[in-house]
Structure formats: C-alpha cells, structure tokens
Amino acid sequence: MAAGNEWINGYLEAILDTGERIHDQRHVGVNEFKAAKYFVESVTSGFDESYLYRTWIKASAVRSSQERSLRLEHLCWRIWHIARKKRLIEWEDAHRLARRHLEREQGRKDATADMSSDLSEGERESTHADSMPRVESNLALSISNADDAGASDKEKPVKDKYIVLLSLHGLVRGDNMELGRDSDTGGQVKYVVEFARSLALMPDVYRVDLFTRQICSPDVDWSYGEPTEMLGMGTYNDSEEVGESSGAYIVRIPFGPRDQYLRKELLWPHIPEFVDGALAHIRNMSKVLGDQIHGKGGLIWPYAVHGHYADAGDAAALLSGALNVPMVLTGHSLGRNKLEQLLKQGRESRQDINTTYRIMRRIEGEELSLDSAELVITSTKQEIEEQWGLYDGFDVKLERVLRARARRGVSCHGRYMPRMVVIPPGMDFSNVIVQEAGDIVEGEAEAVMLTSVDASNIVPITPRDNPPIWEEIMRFFSNPHKPMILALARPDPKKNLTTLLKAFGERQALRELANLTLIMGNRDDIDEMSGGNAAVMTTVLKLIDKYDLYGQVAYPKHHKQCDVPEIYRLAAKTKGVFVNPALVEPFGLTLIEAAAHGLPMVATKNGGPVDIHKTLSNGLLVDPHNEKEIADALLKLLSERNLWSVCRKNGLKNIHLYSWPEHCRKYLSWVALCRMRHPQWKTESSLENEELIESQSDSLRDVQDISLRLSVDGNTSISNPGDLERLLRSQNSLGKSNGKDDVKVNLGAKQRAVNSSMDSTQDEGTDARKTGSLSTGAYKAMPLKKRRRLVIIAVDGYDLTSNKPSATFVTHIQSIVKAIQSDSSIRVQPGLIISSALTMSEIVEMLNSAGMSPMEFDALICSSGSEVYYPASGSDDGGTQQDLQADKDYSSHIDYRWGYEGLRKTMARLNTSDAASANNDKIWIEDTGSCNSHCLAYTITNPDITPNVDQLRQRLRMRGLRCHAMYCRNATRLHLLPLSASRSQALRYFFIRWNVDVSNMIVVVGETGDSDYEELLSGTHKTILIRGAVEGGSERKLRASGNYDRVDVAPSESPNMVVAEANSVPAILLEALKQ
C-alpha cells in the first residue's frame, strides 16, 4: 500500500524511530496539520490489518486536501500502532523463547549430569545390553513384514488383537462424510474412518473400535446419534468365518450436553465424562471378546489405545493409565505451532487467542499426551523436529541420549521420551482410475483401475462417458488438447498460487506448451469469501488479465468431492503435471493422490514433499519463492517425454507404500515394539478360577442381604465379613441350616483365601501401624468385590494453622457414615471410601480420635492416590485382631514410568535455584514421614518462590521426567506421584478391578481443595459440593496467570453435580443412593 507513496514511508520511519507525533508538516503539504483525537483513539483500540487497504482507498478519493490529510494521518497512526504492537509481540516472544531455550539447555545438562555417574557400569553389562530389543528402520520393518507375509501361508497369525482409536470432535460416520461442513469435520475424520476399516482387515486384528462423541442435536443428521455403526467385517472375503463381534466399528459415547453439537474448543471440560463412558464399553467388550476368542472366562484387553488430536490424546492418556495398556498418539495439527503462527501475525493478543481457541488447554493436553504416549505417529520428519520439538515433553537431543542408554542397558533414572516414527497416511486406491502406461495422448489408451489389495496392480475397466467436471474445465481453454498443469489447493496465501501464476505468465514457452488449471475450492461470490481467500482470488484474476492468459487458465467455481479423482484423471489423460507450490507443506496428500493417478509432480522443497519425493521419486522439488525455478521444472517435465514417463512409472510403482495395508503393517510393527502391558491382577491362575470367583461373589451378595437384615432388625452393627461370620455362628435360628451352611462355607473359603495370601507385615514410611500386603488373587473376600455403589468422601478440609484435618472435615465424615448406616430403606448398602492426601496412619489416627474405626470403610485412598488400603480380618476364627491391607496390584498398576530416584535427585537440584539461594533458603524440605514407594512428599518452606504445578511440570518434563505433581494441605505440602496415580484415577481402577461402574459412584467434595481437586469434579459419577467445607485450599498453586481456567477442565454446570449446604448433604446423599 505504502510502496508507491514515499512520503508515507518516511513518515512512518520517523514515527517508529522516535515514537512521538510528527511535527514535520512538509510531507503532507498543508499549513495546519493536527491529529484528530477521534482518529487517535480509534487507532489505538485495535490492530487489525484487514481494513487498512480500504482506508487508503477512501482517503485517496477525498478531494478536500484538509480532510484527505486528516484521513491519511489517521491511516499512518493505524499503521504505526500495528507496527508497534507487532514489535512488542516479537520482543516478548524473543525473550520467552530465549528463557525457554536456557531452561531446556539447563534441563538437558542436569539430566546428563544425573545419568553420567553409572555410564561406564552400564557399558560393562554387555549381556544385558544385547538382550535389549533393537529398533529397525522403516526399511527393515518393511522387509520383515514382507517376510512375514510370505510365511503367512504356512502359519496363519492368530486374530486376537483389540485396538481402540479415539477421535472426539467433528461429525464422524462411515458413509457420506460431510467433509468441510465445519473446521472440525475435515481430513482427520476421513483419515480415522479409513484407518479403522483398514486396520480391522489385518490378519492378526480381531476388532477395532473408533470412539467419538454421540450427538443427538436437531442441527445434525440423526445418524450421529446412533450408539454404534459398523464400518467393516474385518475380512476381504465375505464367505470367511469371523467372530460375531469382529470388524471395525464406530462407537459413539455421550458426553457433554446431549442436544448440542459443540466445536472442539468447548469439549475440554467434558473429556473425563467421555473417558468413564469409554471405560465402561471397553470393560464389557473385553469380556465379550475373551469369550469369543479364548472361551468363557477370558479377557481381551486393548492392544493399544490410539488418540488422534490433542483432545483425544488427553482422553487416551487417562484410558491408558486406567487400563494399563500402551498409548499411541497422532497429533494431526499441534497447538504450539498454531500459537506461534498466530502471534507472529500480530492480529490477536495471547489472551484473545487463548479465549478463542482454548490454545493453552490444548497445549497442556498435548503435553499430557506426550507424558503417557509410548509411540507418536507423524507424517514427516519435519513434524518431529520443527513442531514436536517445541514441546516441553520432547527433546530430540535428549531422546537420542536416552535411546542410546536404553540400548546399552544403562539406567535412565526414570527419564523417558516417547518414540517418534514417520508413517505417512494411507490412501484408498479402490476407486482410483488411471490410464495404461503407454502413449496416452496419441493412442487410444485403455483405462485401468488400481486394486484395493495392492496399489501396484492394475486391472482394466470398461470405457465410460466423460464426467461433467471435464467439460466444466475444458470450456476455459482455447486448445484443450495441450498438457495440463494442475494445482489443487485452497486460495490461501500460504499455498502460493499467485507465484505459480506469475511463473506461468512470465515464461512464454510454458504458456505455448501447456494449459494451467487452478482448483481453488468452491465459491459463489468473491466478496463473500474471507479476507485472505478473497485477496488471493482477486490477485489471481488480476494476474490472468495482466499476462493475458484468457483461454490458457481454468479456474472453475464449483466442484464436488467425487470430482477430484476425475480431475486427476483428466490431467493424466493430457499427459500433464501436478504442482504444489506451497510455501510450507506439512505433508502433501494431494501429491500422493496425483501419483496414484499417474501424474508426475513439481512440489515445494519445504516440508512433507521431501519425504514423498524420496519414496516415490516421481518429480522435481523447487524453491517456492523462485518463479524461474518453478517454471524451469514444469517446462522440463512437460517437454522431456522420457523424463515424464520415468516419473510416472516410478510413482505408480511405489505408490503402494502409501496404501492403507502398508500403513497398517508399519503401524502394527511399531506398536509391537511397545512395552506390552495389561491389568496386572489378571494372571493365568486368576483366569483359571474365574468361574469360582463369580460364584463366590454371588454368595457374598446373599451374605450382604442377610447382614442388612440383621443390622436393621437386631440393631447390630455389621461392618465387615469377619463381624458377619462371628454373628452367624451365634444366630442358629436364622433360616434353614443348609442355607446358612452354604453362606458360611463360601464366606469362610474366601476369608481363608485372604489369610493364606497375607505377606509379612511391613513398615510404610513412618506409619506406626503394621500393615499386611495382599498379592494377586488375594482379594476374593474384599468388601469392594460385592459393592455396586460407592460413596467417596474427598473433602480436603485442613486447619489453617496446623494443616491437620479440621473439625469440620471430621464432622462431615461422621454425618455421612451415620446417615448411611442408620437408613434401613437403602436396598443395597454402598461402599464407603475416604480419599485424601493424608497418609494411612494419619487417616487412622483421625478416625480413632473421632470415635470411628477404619473398618467401617471399604477402602482408603491415601497420600493423594499413591496408596490404596482395604480392611481385612486377621484370622478366620472369629478373633478381634484386624488390620489394613495394602493393595499390591494397585502399586504395580501405577508403577509404570515411575522414576523415584531420578525425581528425588532433580528435586534436590531444583531446590537450590538462584531464586532460593539468594536468601540461602530452601524452597522445600523432603518429608520422609509422608513419603512412600510411590509418593515423594515435601514440606514447603518458602511459598513465595515455590513454582506452580504447571511450572514444576515444565521443568521436570524438560529433564525427561514424568510425574503427577500436586499441592495439598493449604499449599504447605507437595506430592509427586506416578503418572497413573491420582485420586480420580483410583476410582477408575476400582471400576476395572472390582467392576464398580464409575457412574455408580458419588463423590463428596468441598468448593475448593488440593490442586488435584478439579480432577474429581467431572465424569459420569455424581458429585456433591459442600459449601463452606474447606477454608483454604491449594488451587492457587495450580496454574500461573494467563493459562487456562477451571472451566476448561470441569464444567461449571452439570446434571451430575449438585451444590449443597452442609446440613442437607446426608439427605441429598441418601436420595441419590435410593435412585
């Protein structure tokens, strides 16, 4: 705009250099030049560039010199304000990136220092190093896959894998996909549907479930409200026998408002609800598949849980932790990369970007996904280095160090980086039609079609009439028989179509040799297009007119999705070339589609096309900024027939590497290298006794009914199986002897199973009590086995002075327990659980001081979710000695990626930061009395310089350490737990372990609490918030200002949540239990 007006350039340079108003009036040419206050105020209120050009036109059209001068000054103020704002953003970004770079370098240095001490020792352990699985390259994997395929005739693989895919947002269905309906329903939807179909066809995959959101809104089609939709049978041969539940399915889980279609930015607070619903389906399906594959009593847990995009990655991390199975992640597009681009544009502040896109919540979701993922699938190497490299949880250099140490068998002290692998997206070739590889132009070529099994094979098809889109394109050309240069992209400035048009217009030989076709989406009126797209379209039309390209360039206004293959076929029929001149192309799916139709390519050398060219070798790469280089490459391919034929043959020969079968083979090969995990308690011995366990559970339910009648009729307190057994011995008048004996035999058998599997007592931290430890298979008499509903008391009430349990907290526990035990109208007694940051000994001490016994509760979730204890009888002879038993299965369940010593060393190193050493004070002191094998506990000594949870996690992630950090006891304590350990995840563990559905749980909390408090608010469980139950809380240490808010984690309003006064909680709780 200002390029042709030198006075404006000088004017702006003076303003930008001095930052003051202009006093030199010679540029404008008027005697009195004063800035209007209205203009200045309107300028400084925003910094949007979209209307600058319009303002310039209006100002230039004014005849009055005085008014024109005022308007031009207004325009200059606007430009100055935009430039100043951009400079400020650039300055802030530069400082932020510099601080981030220094922090990353320090983290890498700390990690190397901690791991250097035992390097030589690990190198000497050559035997152990040789036993480590080595990871082959993609080529080696492909070769091994080919060998496996050749051996498949001799030994058919077992079809027993169950794979779970997650894609939460958008409108997902198998047929008639509404691609492009909105920004959430695009290429990702098509990708996951085709991926699920193809994965189910693999010889060792039994079932694939694609989880998405169920939408029952009048604004969308009814099909999106169907709970399930079948995508495929899981076999190429319809006559082949497959299991009843095998194949690929879309499973729609209801979460969030049932009657609303929400954009992806609004789904974040409802993700825990989705996780609970998906967990219920997976648990039921694991039993169904186990019965079909292994016979009655078997279980088939997911082979992997694969999240697509940040929201599904967040959900996959929770599911993976609850199920203890490997997690895979595909980012598709990344939040940090988008944030950087939006900030560079300078049109919106960071706060505005966060409000619009929930970008900080999305970034944290991606960081949490990296924490849990074992495998990250990318499309290109550029995505690994330039996009994932922006995240705290992934460092390319540190990942290489950790990988090398793992191969040599050297300890990494709990440090971990997910493996990043490049597996390009697949393509469905079943409907791809190409021409025979002979002379297409001069001879009558025979049409052929690629088969769906192997894209390198072609079969003839019968001739057909020319499709309508051909006529629509050819009407633009004066000579439609010339070869066609085809570009298919949105009219986006990043797609660089104007540079392509200039290259075509400037080179006369190219114009004489070929036509140019620009497929730029669909449009009705350019004025109704968005600003950037409209500007590109306007420039395209101007360039066509400038170079007089009428009759040589086609730019149709409309086309359908089904027309795209026909457009490729038309270009191939004319022996043309496909061109992608984008400034940066993340992947380049259109290049693969073009190669599948026999089109050589000319593509940008920035991004994904580099990898595609290396694989297909079917064209030339160019600098997208160099018009001459683009024109030369196009002219070379079109004029040299031999080169064109070689590129075409190479593309058709190698295109099968981008087929879905090839994609799935590589995918399964990489997933097989993950550490295969499954719920630890399902061992072979437990599977053999599954039928016995179920029958004993039924007997316990009968015993429970008897215990309820005894408690109500005789006013006798029954709190555990031991009390009931003793009572049964003295109640000879109850029922018939055979019924009573059956109950006693079953109960006694289960009680003896507990007693026979008790480990020797052990000390946990500095707990004064001796606790037993139950091994696998020892929980057959545990109270939770017979519970169908649970009440979890998770009120974080601590005294503000002593930080010990407050009297209000104890009163709430007493009132809830009393209300449940005294109400005889409850048909099935619920289980009672205390969930707290207190240690087990502190909870027992609190209960004893209040006149209660820990045996009145079915479980204790202690130390913020790092330990679980159950009550159990000490003997089966009716004695009174009782104890609390630690759940060893839970300990092994949360142990994955837990680096206790590495975290301990790093926390000691962070404790001597510059901020702390200035006053020679420590930020925290290790609280050895509250530590256990899965909890590092610290007492905060200097809260003013203590980092928030998000800052602490950032520092630990940069050092390769993953954990769940949280503040408790009014922010005076800090707990570090394994990733899978938390109070909310413990509830999901109870679901998987004891089959108590999360939707049948009631969680009682305060209005605030520890920093993990908000994790307990959302889900399918019922939540009761007690007003005034908590005075302090630790949520102030959760996130720094400018980050996301609680509304992005838990909904402010939910049908599953109720806020109540303290005196009304028992009545609300009892009403909920009776439903």
The overall strand count is: 30
What's the overall average pLDDT, rounded?
Answer: 79
Major sheet size, sense and barrel closure? 9 strands, mixed
Overall radius of gyration: 34 Å
In DSSP terms (H or I, runs of 4 or more residues), the helix count works out at 37
Estimated share of beta-strand residues: 5-15%
Multimeric status of the protein: single chain
- Main sheet strand line-up: 18-23-22-21-20-19-28-29-30
Helical amount among residues, as a percent range?
A: 40-55%
Q: Sum up the overall morphology in one term.
A: globular
Unreliable stretches (pLDDT < 50, length at least 5) are: 1-50, 119-154, 437-448, 451-456, 683-771, 774-781, 875-881
**Classification by helices and strands:** alpha/beta
Q: What is the first-to-last residue Cα distance?
A: 69 Å
List keywords for this structure.
globular; alpha/beta; disordered N terminus; 1075 residues; 37 helices
Quick structural summary:
The protein is built from 37 helices and 30 strands. With 1075 residues, it is of the alpha/beta class. It is an enzyme of class 2 (transferase).
Structural features, described:
Residues 827-1026 form the Sucrose phosphatase-like domain. Residues 104-132, 749-772 are annotated as: Disordered. Homodimer or homotetramer. By secondary structure, the chain is α/β, with parallel strands linked by helices. Helix content is 42%, strand content 13%. The protein is built from 37 helices and 30 strands. It has a nine-stranded mixed β-sheet, sandwiched between helices. β22 and β23 (882-887) form a beta hairpin. α2 (37-44) runs parallel beside α4 and α9 (271-293) crosses α10.
